[in-house]
Amino acid sequence: MKPMLVKRAAALGLKVGLKAGLAACLIGAVAAGGTAVAGDVEAGRTKAYTCLGCHGIPDYVNVYPTYHVPKIGGQHEEYLVAALKAYRDKTRSHGTMQANAGSLSDEDINDIAAYFASLK
Ligand code: HEC
């Protein structure tokens, strides 16, 4: 590539990058509008699908009668985030929940927590 072209390509890349960044900011601002919720409830609804087998919603029915599954719908978002990070980082012990939280990103955890916190 000639030096001129390299320069142009770099400028173009920067432009696209700035646009994407701006879009992300705007989306973030809209999502945060009016509520203290950091996560995306709708995204969390999808991501929480596998959780519902145990943390039964909406009736909080325990599908595993042999052991206690805590009710997490309607819990404080901050509490849910803290609990999920603790399982993921193995600072809170529970094999089942460590397995369930192990592959979650911070964003997943925020979204899932927002979803469960939105349930009343
Ligand atoms: C196989 C059943 C099962 C699945 C699937 C499951 N959980 Fe759990 N969950 C449990 C049990 C049992 C506990 C109680 C663990 C303990 O005593 O620490 C628990 C605890 C929790 C807690 C802590 C609640 C509290 O009161 O401290 C949170 C938060 C939670 N689960 C979220 C989730 C999320 C989010 C998912 C999906 C990514 C999920 N769970 C999937 C069984 C399950």
What would you note in describing this structure?
There is one protein chain. This protein has two domains: 1-34; 36-118, Cytochrome Bc1 Complex, Chain D, domain 2, CATH 1.10.760.10. The protein contains five helices and no strands. The protein has helices spanning 3-32, 41-47, 77-88, 95-101, 106-118. Helix 2 (41-47) crosses helix 5, helix 3 (77-88) packs across helix 4 (95-101) and helix 3 packs antiparallel against helix 5 (106-118). The N and C termini lie far apart (60 Å). The model is unreliable at 21-35 (pLDDT under 50). Residues 48, 50-51, 53-55, 67, 69-70, 72, 80, 83-84, 94, 96-97, 100, 112 line the site of heme C (HEC). Residues 48, 50-51, 53-55, 67, 69-70, 72, 80, 83-84, 94, 96-97, 100, 112 line the site of heme C.
Summarize the structure.
With about 120 residues, the protein is mostly helical. It has helices at about 5-30, 40-45, 75-90, 95-100, 105-120.
Query: How many domains comprise the coordinates?
Result: 2
Terminal residue distance: 60 Å
- Total strands: the figure is 0
Indicate the radius of gyration in whole angstroms: 20 Å
What's the name of the CATH homologous superfamily of the largest domain? Cytochrome c-like domain
Ligand roster: heme C
Q: Give the SSE order as H and E letters.
A: HHHHH
- The number of helical segments is 5
Q: Give the DSSP E fraction (strand runs of 2 or more residues).
A: under 5%
Largest sheet: none
Overall geometry comes to: globular
What is the helical fraction, as a range of percent? 55-70%
How much is the average pLDDT? 76
The CATH class designation of the largest domain is Mainly Alpha
Secondary-structure class: mainly alpha
Contiguous low-pLDDT stretches (5 residues minimum) are: 21-35
Do you know the CATH topology of the largest domain? Cytochrome Bc1 Complex, Chain D, domain 2
Give the name of the CATH architecture of the largest domain. Answer: Orthogonal Bundle
